[in-house]
Design a protein that fits this description.
Radius of gyration: 19 Å
Helix content: 25-40%
Oligomer: single chain
Shape: globular
């Protein structure tokens, strides 16, 4: 890890692919990305920005948005994907093999409208992205399920060192924000507060709600994007974006990625609600509750989840 003036994280010790800058850990995002992001990106008024913390259902939502923009014509969507008119899911800020200018240039050649995914926190998002004319979707998932999913992602991802520690080792790092993209609490609360002030061009989705009634949320997203979807289109999109279908789809499941070891954990692993109950100890649950109470308090976002029993369905 590039440890210059950086705090220590046991997850990334001696890991050159992870760096610390702009007050958080990053993998595949150099510090100079943000200057290019502000000045060199090809901004378009019809872009659809997809924001989230990692492991919150971003790949799923990216495919949903793309399918909705094609109004449920799955064959046309897949043809566009094969033709390179839609990029495989990868957050905008992650370059891996490409330089930052090359990475941004790959977006410039795409036809409009584009769905642009990013995990960048609000505090680092260029002002142009925050302008009202851009449509923005923010996906939120129960943080305990995010933590478990992120743990397995660290175990399988080579850029993250294929983490060899245990869940018990990973948990305190997640809770304290000593992971790439920093604290789930800070990231989520920052975007939540901003988007509540710009509801005309912003939509917040809850992962659990989409799991509970995907067709309803397809219609909701369609209305947000100005697409009057037929019942047939909604059904086609729901079928195409079903978890097992996406898990078997080479375009969405990262099949063949040199960065992932699927023998450890797949990129699309389970896609369920409540998997955290298989990992959290009673003590960890108590620790999490203390941080939750401190960070979330009486915020409206905090009231969207119950931490110990079933999630709340917000339709």
């Amino acid at each position: 890890m590039n440890a210059t003036l950086s705090p220590y994280s046991p997850l990334y010790a001696d890991l050159p692919s992870v760096s610390y800058h702009h007050d958080q850990f990053w993998a595949g995002t150099p510090a100079h990305f943000f200057a290019h992001f502000t000045h060199d990106f090809d901004y378009r008024s019809d872009d659809v920005w997809l924001h989230s913390y990692p492991r919150s259902g971003t790949t799923w939502t990216y495919e949903l948005l793309s399918a909705i923009l094609y109004e449920g014509d799955v064959a046309a969507l897949q043809q566009a994907q094969r033709a390179g008119k839609i990029l495989r899911f990868l957050p905008l800020e992650i370059g891996i093999a490409a330089s930052v200018p090359e990475r941004l240039a790959s977006w410039k050649v795409l036809p409009s409208p584009r769905v642009i995914p990013t995990h960048v926190p609000l505090r680092l998002c260029p002002q142009r992205v925050l302008e009202h004319r851009y449509k923005r979707v923010y996906v939120v998932r129960h943080p305990k399920d995010v933590a478990v999913s992120f743990y397995h992602h660290h175990r399988a991802h080579k850029l993250l060192g294929q983490y060899q520690g245990t869940w018990d080792d990973f948990f305190p790092c997640f809770l304290s924000g000593q992971v790439v993209y920093g604290s789930w609490f800070e990231h989520t609360l920052g975007w939540w507060a901003h988007l509540q002030e710009h509801t005309a061009n912003a939509l917040v989705l809850f992962y659990e709600d989409m799991q509970h009634d995907l067709p309803a949320h397809i219609r909701r997203l369609g209305a947000f994007l100005g697409k009057d979807l037929s019942a047939h289109a909604v059904a086609a999109i729901a079928a195409h974006c079903a978890f097992e279908r996406m898990r078997a789809n080479p375009f969405t499941n990262r099949e063949g990625s040199p960065m992932m070891d699927f023998s450890v954990a797949r990129f699309l692993r389970k896609g369920v609600v409540g998997d955290w109950r298989n990992y959290f100890t009673a003590e960890q649950n108590t620790q999490f509750q203390a941080v939750w109470d401190q960070k979330m308090g009486d915020t409206a976002l905090g009231q969207h989840f119950t931490l110990d029993e079933q999630y709340l369905v917000i339709l």
